[in-house]
Amino acid sequence: MDREKKIFFSSLFLAGEPLDNKFFRKILDPINLENRLLDYMEQFNGMSLGIKIRQVSGGFQMVTDKELFTELEPFFGEKTETLSRASLETAAIIAYKQPITRLEIDEIRGVNSSGTVRYLLDKNLVKVTGRKDVPGKPLLYSTTKFFLEYMGINDISELPTFREWQELKTK
Question: Is 63 helix (H, G, I), strand (E, B) or coil?
Answer without folding.
Answer: strand
